[in-house]
Amino acid sequence: MAQHTQTTQAHRREPVHPTPITYAKVAAALGLITVAEIGLLYINALNDIVIPVFFILSVVKFALVVMFYMHLRYDSRLFSGFFVGALLLAASIVLGLIALFKTIFV
């Protein structure tokens, strides 16, 4: 009986990995988002908000790829912390450079 309890507890600790159907759903979602991005280019009424919408859609696509295809959703939070920390550092450097050169050349 004790061994059955230990086995059950060991199974609870193992992370559940996605099934092939989950990967297909994520791929379909990424495809639909890409189709929406391409469609947005042809709607002239949205020219004023197309950049923020593209940014939001890109963040969603990035999050889906990182969570499922890079397996960060199922790995240790430490790996996610390293990844997000490096991403924030890189984004702040890029935004700083954009602000610097926009100020200089405008």
In short, what is this structure?
The protein has 106 residues and is an all-alpha fold. Helices cover 78% and strands 0% of the residues.
Question: Which tags fit this structure?
Answer:
single chain; 106 residues; 4 helices; mainly alpha; 78% helix
Task: Tell me about this structure.
The protein contains 4 helices and no strands. The chain is mainly alpha-helical and 106 residues long. It has 2 domains: 2-75; 76-106.
Topology:
Elements: H1 2-13, H2 20-41, H3 50-69, H4 77-105
Helix pairs in contact: 2-3
Beta-strand residue percentage = under 5%
- How far the N terminus sits from the C terminus, by CA atoms, comes to 75 Å
For the largest beta-sheet, the strand count, sense and barrel status come to:
none
Task: Name the helix and strand elements from N-terminus to C-terminus, one letter apiece.
Answer: HHHH
Strands, count = 0
Average predicted confidence as pLDDT: 82
| Coarse morphology | flat
Uncertain runs are: none
What count of domains describes the coordinates? 2
Backbone structural class: mainly alpha
Q: How helical, in percent, are the residues?
A: over 70%
The radius of gyration over CA amounts to: 21 Å
Number of helices: 4
